[in-house]
Amino acid sequence: MSQQKPSIIHIIRPDDWHLHIRAGEGLKSVIPHTARQCGRAIIMPNLTPPVINTEQAGIYRQSILAALPENTHFTPLMTLYLTNDTPVEEIQKALDCGFIAAVKLYPAGATTNSDAGVTDIKKCYPTLEKMQELGLPLLVHGEVTAAEIDIFDREKRFIDDKLIPLISDFPELKIVFEHITTADAADFVTQSSAYIAATITAHHLLMNRNDMLVGGIKPHHYCLPVLKRETHRQALLKAAASGNNKFFMGTDSAPHSRQNKETACGCAGMFTAFAAIELYAEAFDEASSLDKLEQFSSLNGPLFYGLEANNDMITLQREKWTVPDSYPFGDDQLIPLRAGQSIHWKLKS
Ligand code: NCD
Ligand code: ZN
Predict the structure, then answer these.
(1) Rounded CA gap, 36 and 316, in Å?
(2) Do residues 80 and 54 touch, judged by C-beta distance below 8 A?
(3) How far, in Å, is the centroid of ligand 2 from the Cα of 271?
(4) What is the chain's Cα-based Rg?
(5) What are the distances in angstroms from CA 251 to CA 84, 91, 305?
(6) Would you please indicate which residues are annotated as catalytic (active-site) residues?
(7) Ligand 1 pocket: which of 16, 42, 46, 140 to mutate (most atoms <8 Å of CB)?
(8) From the CB of 208, is ligand 1 less than 6 Å away?
(9) pLDDT > 70: what percent of the chain?
(10) Which tens digit of pLDDT belongs to each residue from 174-198?
């Protein structure tokens, strides 16, 4: 039976469960994009230096609140950057402060600003024990870092070598496998217990590695984990639109200045926050699953984190618009995904 494609949809306001907004003037430039779309966002702690304790997270949170446009109702959900030395007592402090929602594990060297990350997860076991006890989720950048492992295999190897043993040692620790990019990860999460969930970015639902490498190298399509082959994109789309409540929206929008992207050794990260929900709508539209968008963008995340869904709605219209060539980023500019090209859904204010 052929269905007519909707031209307008109303969904509960989404949340972004994985977001980079940086600090200082850059923060001021990018946070309004997310605050316009989302009720809440999980704020990644990979600043330089990283946000490693509750006090620093509190200061960072204040700077975010101060950077919000007037009359916006947006809640930053803060995270701590796990290190080899994160004290066990910090976990209780984090929980007690009321504004920290999770702890982020970066394997040292895995991605942007991860040098202070964890070199051996066993060093963190007492801390993870406490997180399991208190129900504070662990968010993982799921890639191994060993030099000899091919970059396209790093997520799969992380599952086999790191995640499976970790889950077996902490079966009741809530874990979000962040920005999954492979069929292996989607299958693994689907088959795991209710303690394991995953975020999926819009760009991994919309693009494969050809979009980065065919017809010339595209620095603005380079991110970590790197885009994978089409079969993986298809598997992610299937998982996101499956209605399974383990999968939810996490843009991993990661702004970098134009010069830091367009250079001989460019930074990893795509900026998608300006049109996050529209990009997801495109992906779900492609999968003929717009009816599953709200669950993915607005319901599954709060359910996993033990929060209520947002209490207002947004409207999305099928409408083609052209993305600006750049957006301001402090004194610099950043190049958004689809710069100068079109997006086929538009958020109505
Ligand atoms: C992120 C960043 O720039 O902070 N980059 C990216 O490519 N996603 C870090 C990360 O989430 O890996
Ligand atoms: Zn990220």
Answers:
(1) 13
(2) yes
(3) 11
(4) 19
(5) 27, 26, 17
(6) 252
(7) 46
(8) no
(9) 99
(10) 999 999 999 999 999 999 999 999 9
